[in-house]
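Record passed on here:
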Amino acid sequence: MRTIIIFLLFFEFGYSQNTLIIDFELCNNSEYTSVLWNEYRLIKNDTLVTENKESVLKLPDGKYQIEYKTYFGWKKTKAFLLFDNIFFQVNLCIDKLESNSMDYYNLGIESIKEGEKLIITHNYAGCFNEGGEKIIIERKKNSFILIYNDKIKKLRKREFDYFKEYEIELINLNTNELNVMCTAYSQNIIEYGNHKYEYSENCPKWNGFGILKYKLKL
């Protein structure tokens, strides 16, 4: 589909300038989903050029970067060059946190000691449903035991890493989002020992708990 779009745009805009196509995506979905509108800033030669939501731009030659809004705050791409009337497409994930941009210290899943529990609670509400779920991880004899409803199992290394990914994303979510009126609501709570971290979201976009359950096959 993307190839067809680029092909059509090629004929529409012609050769007069470089064409930059910015595709914002939800990459954690089972299928990549494009986002029609997402805030970003275009930087040319280290100077802010524009702030808009256009996905197709005609631009002169130069060095460019894109600062763009994600679920975890603002990010900036590495610099790229546009020249010789090029068609250039940039695909940017807004729901994925790059692992190399984050410290891995003080995560609950890594901090619980023998006999302690990590409790993850997800509360939600919408127009037609509401409820809550819990995933409990208990450390026993240097193993990590998952408890979800009536399901109990020992975590494998890969599954342990899923919890790390969930926690890292959760604590990096943008907490400065404007409060908007919405019938949908989502709350994620992590508790272990005397520690508690909570993130609530109106009109929820991040689906970290659902993705965690999917990966764990719960």
Observations:
- The chain is about 20% helix and 45% strand.
- Confidence is low (pLDDT under 50) at residues 1-15.
- Residues 157-172 form the longest helix (16 residues).
